[in-house]
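Appendix B.2, paired examples.
Example (i):
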Amino acid sequence: MTRFVYISQLRELRDDVVAMASMVDKAISRSVQALRQQDVNLAHEVIAADHLINSHRWRTEERALLVIATQAPMASDLRVIAAVISIVTDLERMADHAAGIAKIVIETSNEPLLKPLVDIPRMADLARQMLADGISAFIEGDEARAREVVKKDDEVDILYDQIFRELLTYMMADTSTINRATRLLWAAHNVERIADRTTNICERVVFAVTGSLAEIAVATD
């Protein structure tokens, strides 16, 4: 009976990660939609929902620590639980980045968009796909897939550099665009950080599977 409870607890922790990742994916999608459409109401909804994601993180951490305290897991099980704690931390921070984009929408609501948005939504789509694949790699214990996900971060970085150069050109050509261009750059940076945090998740997948904890790619705060 005790073993059955233990297995159920581990499964519930994985389910918690999947549920939280879904919440974060929705926050990313809605924040970029709000930015693209200058939808202030939607931006407020993203910010309001952020506390639910925070609560989910703390609840999952508490459950993970309870399993450690009561079941004394060993070897790979312990690594999986440690990975859960790390992953939900990164997911919560991704949600913060989404909320940051939503705040930019509210702060710039009295001004028209500098330009139709193409590359930021493309960045977001890539980051969301990375997140989905990274979580799948965790659930399946797939080290190879986790490593493949990390490689996609280069595509996000290329788009970010492209956006940076384009917005800099706007600012140099017309100083009246500086505020709007700077805010769009901040939004792009938030998306870029979401992708970086997915690489953190993939590193934890590799750790959970192999026991080796090392950087696959560099991500800075």
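Example (ii):
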Amino acid sequence: MQVVEQVKRWLSDFVIELGLCPFASKPYLEGSIRYQLIESDDLEKIILSFHQELNHLNNHTHTETTLLIAPSLDTHFDEFLDVFYTCEAYIEQLGLQEDYQLASFHPEYVFASANVDDASNYTNRSPHAIIHILRASSLEMAIKSYGDTSTIPTKNIALMNEMGLRAIESKLKDLE
């Protein structure tokens, strides 16, 4: 299966189906999510792709959000985080931190406070390395309509723990 198709299946059959992100369904159903594949592992080329995507979002308001998919960063979570933090710094350098927010997903995602094999990590594990670019204004509106978002991480962690590693890994394997 192709990389972008794997990510789409993960989004629909894992994230949305399990309710991990209550805001993902609307742009998914509306077709306003852009999936961009970055086929380079060169930091400059990745940042250039990131910059091009920010330009695209600035010029195409019908695109709600972008998933930048970088399979070359799949195997080293720490290297991926370096790239992710570079992208965050780039947004600040451009003065766009009020316009865009980033989220990170990775096949080896591990929260700082969790063990590697903790089920909670699967709330941010994906089939490939992903830098998610969100419009801050859209996120703000979604949060206002949702209400108290502080319970989302706790609910997601509880769900992952309830499912258990074997069931989670089986569900993800079915998406390949």
